[in-house]
Specification:
46% of the residues lie in helices and 13% in strands. The protein has 3 domains: 221 residues, HUPs (Rossmann fold, 3-Layer(aba) Sandwich), CATH 3.40.50.620; 77 residues, Orthogonal Bundle (Tyrosyl-Transfer RNA Synthetase), CATH 1.10.240.10; 69 residues, Structural Genomics Hypothetical 15.5 Kd Protein In mrcA-pckA Intergenic Region, Chain A. The chain is α/β, with parallel strands linked by helices. Helix 13 runs antiparallel to helix 16 and helix 13 packs across helix 17. The chain contains 19 helices and 13 strands. The chain is globular.
């Protein structure tokens, strides 16, 4: 595919829309992108969980803009760095993952990401694994890489400062993470990297190594972070993600649960609406428009993008009937249990209706679990499967229990 010279409008959108910062500068990026040469740009994702979420998708949508202009796009899976664990935003060291866990989490990444960037066609994206080069580094190589950084530089990171104040340990292997991620850029000899603002330190480590080892400038693009459904950073560990492979009903429902103050952010970062349309939505909200109506449009638009119009319409109808009108859906999944009588907490946890027994207990105490239309408050309740009860978990999840 030949490089397309971007129009002024395309360039402004590429370098401004959903972009927080550009290193070394926006002017340097514009010069490189209008130079007529193909640049290589990548995003790195550690497989700390099996799902790609809408926070990742913000960056992937920007990558698609580069790809559409003919530039080389690389999706890098951090199967090696994932075993170390990124310390970013962590007040304690991550539990290190086994190679088997990393491999299992990463196995569907390409299929999920292919919704957003193209691995086929005239300019296919490339997928790489950083174990290809990092596993081959000798101890002497690591010492050489470490010589380009100071302990003071590492300790500047916010989470390390917090740990020092809280008298919590900082493990030496956590310093290796930005070295390893920085070396990714050198190994692939890229021209640019893009990621969320939380990855700025790690991406600039790569920029530093490129200068030192290859005497080459590397552009760094940072994108604003999409907050999760609860208003905190969207994170697998916090359980507040909306995943690209969520079912249409779950995706629509989760989007409807987003805080009202985040509606405009989600419209900007998760849809193809232009700036003028976004401004119109903001004006409607400022003038007293019911946020629910605009949120429905958001939920429908995003669900349609990932699942198609037909599934989005079904999800919208399901939400209206089940969540807004409180009706029981006609089609309810059936769970066959081995015992006729089971404790409600065990039932919710064992059959993945809740992520854990602790979550099941919390949800019950908050009134988020119903059996045959009645809220339950006791974690000691016994469910009799011979009576084929219908259990509602949260606002959208229904199952029928049978022996």
């Amino acid at each position: 595919m030949r490089i397309k010279q971007p129009t002024r409008q395309q360039l402004d959108h590429l370098l401004s829309y959903n972009i927080d910062s550009i290193y070394p500068s926006k002017e340097a990026a514009e010069k490189m992108l209008t130079g007529g040469k193909q640049i290589s740009i990548y995003i790195g994702v550690d497989p700390s969980g099996p799902q790609i979420h809408l926070g990742h998708a913000v960056v992937l949508r920007k990558l698609r803009e580069f790809q559409n202009l003919g530039h080389k796009v690389i999706f890098l899976i951090g199967d090696f760095t994932g075993m170390i664990g990124d310390p970013t935003d962590k007040t304690a060291a991550r539990v290190q993952m086994t190679p088997q866990e990393v491999k299992k989490n990463a196995q569907t990444y390409r299929d999920q990401v292919s919704i957003l960037i193209d691995f086929k066609g005239d300019n296919p994206a490339e997928i790489k694994f950083n174990s290809t080069w990092l596993s081959k580094l000798a101890f002497g190589d690591l010492i050489e890489l470490a010589s380009h950084f100071t302990v003071q530089q590492m300790l500047e990171r916010d989470m390390f400062q917090k740990r020092i104040k809280q008298n919590r340990p900082i493990y030496l292997h956590e310093f290796f993470y930005p070295l390893m991620q920085g070396y990714d850029s050198v190994a692939m000899n890229v021209d640019a990297e893009i990621g969320g603002t939380d990855q700025t330190f790690n991406m600039l480590a790569g920029r530093n190594l490129m200068k030192s080892l290859k005497n080459k400038e590397k552009l760094v693009f940072t994108c604003p972070l999409l907050l999760g459904t609860d208003g905190r950073k969207m994170s697998k560990s916090l359980g507040n993600t909306i995943n690209v492979w969520d079912s249409p009903k779950d995706m629509y429902g989760k989007l409807m649960s987003v805080k009202d103050e985040l509606i405009i952010n989600y419209l900007m970062m998760c849809t193809d609406y232009g700036q003028e349309e976004i401004s119109n939505f903001q004006e409607q909200l400022d003038q007293g428009e019911n946020p629910m109506e605009i949120k429905k449009l958001l939920a429908y638009t995003v669900t349609k993008f990932y699942h198609g119009e037909k599934e989005a319409e079904k999800a919208e109808a399901f939400f209206k009937k089940v969540v807004q009108e409180g009706q029981i859906p006609q089609e309810i999944p059936i769970i066959k249990v081995k015992k006729n009588k089971t404790n409600i907490v065990d039932l919710l946890a064992v059959y993945n209706l809740c992520s854990s027994k602790a979550e099941a207990k919390r949800l019950i105490k908050q009134g988020g679990v119903e059996v045959n239309g009645e809220k339950i408050t006791s974690t000691e309740l016994t469910v009799d499967a011979t009576k084929k009860p219908v259990i509602k978990v949260g606002k959208r999840k229904f199952v029928k229990i049978v022996a």
